Every structure is written in C-alpha cells, then in structure tokens.
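> call design_seq(struct)
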C-alpha cells in the first residue's frame, strides 16, 4: 500500500483507499501516485471478455495477470497486456476493486483532459461490464452513482468523464449506449461535473 496519508473517514465507506462494500482483488498492475497530485477525476470505461460475453472471470484474470491467453481466440489480440482499473461493476451491480484509490491504476493509457496529460496520474478508473453500443443495466447505474458519491466525499472528485472523452479517436467507451443524464440524476451532481457533449449526445 502507498505511504500517503489516509483520506478523511466518511462513515464506513472506505478503509484507506479500499471501498468497504467492494470485493477486493488486488492487481499487480498499479503504481504510486505522485506526491501532491489531487485525485479529482473519475473515468468511466466499458469492458467485456470476450467482447459481448458477460459473466465468468476473464476480466478479473486480465487485471490480475492470470488470464489464459489461449482460452479464446480474441485473447491473442491482447496477449501480454498488463492493465488494471480501480473498480469493475458487473451487470448485476456487483462491485469489484482491483486497486486502492491511493494507487495509480493502469486504465487510461495515452490520455488528456482539460490541459493535463496522463490521466492515470489523477483519476480513478471504473469499468462497467458491457459494450459501447449495448444498454447498461439499472443496477450498474445505481452502484456507479453511489460509488461516485462515496469517492467525492473522500477525495476532490470534480468530474466524471468517459474513456472516449480523454482519449478521443482512440477509445469509444463507455459509448453511445451509456446514459449520462441518468447518471447525473442519480448522483445529484450539476451538469458541469460531466462532459457537456456527453449530456447532449445521450440517447435518453
């Protein structure tokens, strides 16, 4: 675990950088945060392994470097990848955590947001089990909204954006099927805490 001071306690939501309601599955694919860098951005992703298939343990195995690369032809395209996210939210709303919020997870890749590069340095990565063009489940929105509120109580999370917003042209997730206005309503956050284009382009 990092040596940074533990953030203020807000109820029983956090134990250091670990959420009390998540299933903890520590990933080796993490690094330390830079001193003095505020954790002020949440990045929403989508993932399914293999694409379009839900359930199973392939996501967990990818993030913990235990995936059998020969188990499916698609896995050969990502063979050797060393990636992680802080959280994964399953289709049924189950919350998994792979990295302490105090650690730097490897989820954003080459990225830029509002004048800053390398969004991994100052963000929390949240993966939703799903595809870019397939609607997400109500349980996922509910858990995501609660997680964002819990994060914002303990860290200065100022905005929630998609991977597509910090890596335009390279990434498309969570995609057109993601309902940003619904997330805004569930969090109770004002519009400025979300990308304007996301609220305008949503199909809701």
């Amino acid at each position: 675990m990092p040596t940074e001071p533990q953030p203020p306690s807000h109820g029983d939501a956090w134990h250091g950088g670990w959420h009390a309601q998540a299933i903890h599955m520590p990933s080796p694919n993490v690094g330390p945060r830079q001193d003095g860098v505020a954790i002020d951005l949440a990045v929403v992703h989508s993932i399914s392994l293999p694409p379009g298939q839900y359930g199973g343990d392939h996501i967990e195995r990818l993030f913990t470097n235990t995936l059998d690369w020969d188990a499916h032809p698609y896995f050969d395209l990502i063979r050797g990848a060393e990636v992680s996210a802080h959280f994964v939210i399953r289709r049924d709303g189950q919350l998994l955590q792979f990295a302490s919020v105090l650690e730097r997870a490897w989820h954003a890749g080459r990225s830029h947001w509002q004048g800053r590069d390398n969004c991994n340095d100052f963000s929390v990565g949240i993966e939703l089990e799903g595809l870019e063009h397939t609607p997400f489940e109500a349980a996922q929105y509910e858990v995501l909204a609660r997680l964002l509120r819990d994060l914002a109580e303990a860290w200065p999370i100022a905005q929630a954006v998609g991977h597509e917003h910090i890596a335009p042209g390279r990434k498309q997730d969570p995609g057109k099927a993601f309902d940003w206005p619904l997330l805004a309503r569930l969090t109770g956050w004002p519009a400025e805490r979300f990308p304007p284009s996301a609220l305008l382009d949503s199909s809701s």
